[in-house]
Amino acid sequence: MAIDPPQTTRPSKTAAGGLTPKPSGPNKLFAQPDQQFGDFRDDLLRDGYAVIKGAVPRARADAYAEAMWTYLETFKNGGKGLGFRRDDPATYTEAHLPVINEKGMCSGYGVNHEDFAWGIRQEPGVVDAFAKVFDTDDLIVSFDAVNMALPGRKDLPANKPWPHQDQDPAKPEFRCLQGIVNLLPNGADDGGLIVCRGAHRLSEQFHREFSAFEKDPVFRWTQEWYGFSEAGLKWLEEHGGHGDDGPKCEWVKVECEPGDLLVWDSRTPHYNLSPRDGGARARFATYTCYMPAADASPADLARKRDAFEQTLGTTHWPNAVHVRDHNTPLKRQDGSTCPYSADNAPRKPVSLTERGFRLTGIPYIAAATTA
């Protein structure tokens, strides 16, 4: 089935409408004490993560997965591909693939702006979930990586645990909701997201108390990131599980089906797992994160516009706090530069619905500049 969104438009690079975004309303998550919603938001409040079943209809999820398989099989080389075949594990090697790291992430080659990536970002069931959390329909979206983890790869280093929060410890309030749209069956042994249930509720206390005696800090590659050391993980273990209503701080592997949306509070410690030994299923997923357009500054929106026009990727932060430097070459495991590293264009021009165009942030630029 076709996966391009209906009634698409291809906006000009300079288009901007001066729309004034509606900020978050009174029902934003964590805005009021004792909130109850009767849906996935209650899980988010309690556990720091939630699974929204069938956010993308199964037929469309299957079509996105098929598009990703086809992307790998036809990658570059004039659409002929580099020899990868989904039914031949012998081709699951770097020589036949784009650069995909040991965590399954691919973020070069304009893949962040491929049709399947934008199709998923524009799925109503995905966007609407974030609109509920932030209590506004005026959102912008990240141009994040995709995950194409293939089982049985011997040419990558082991994916070691890297528990972290994607949020500045000095800003302890709820600020960001991260998301993954899962596209293939994903069970206990298949690799994927693991979260520390309930630990978001201890985040402020952790950073207030633990920072005073932290002896082995983990390198922070951006300000909006914090890596947990062994001592930090021990603190969480010791402080979790006290009282019936307190956070248990237990690590949970999230299981899901094609089309499910996984969301988690950025304060929740998390990382991804590789398939267990003998696991035979691939993991396909896209990272989707939205925030209110009103929370982005004019400089943020300008930086985001430039990333969109150059089809560059960002981190999960939708305000483009960090944009991939296309001049930094993509390196293979042997240290050589991927010969397609400088080719940053997706296979087709980005195609958007009207709502999808608003997600780029471009229509809000004039209003933000004059606000």
UniProtKB/TrEMBL annotation:
It comes from the Eukaryota. Residues 1-28 are annotated as: Disordered. SUPFAM superfamilies: Clavaminate synthase-like. Residues 1-12 have a biased composition (Polar residues). Pfam families: PhyH. PANTHER family: PHYTANOYL-COA DIOXYGENASE, PHYTANOYL-COA DIOXYGENASE-RELATED-RELATED. This is Phytanoyl-CoA dioxygenase. It comes from Apiospora marii. The lineage of its organism: Eukaryota, Fungi, Dikarya, Ascomycota, Pezizomycotina.
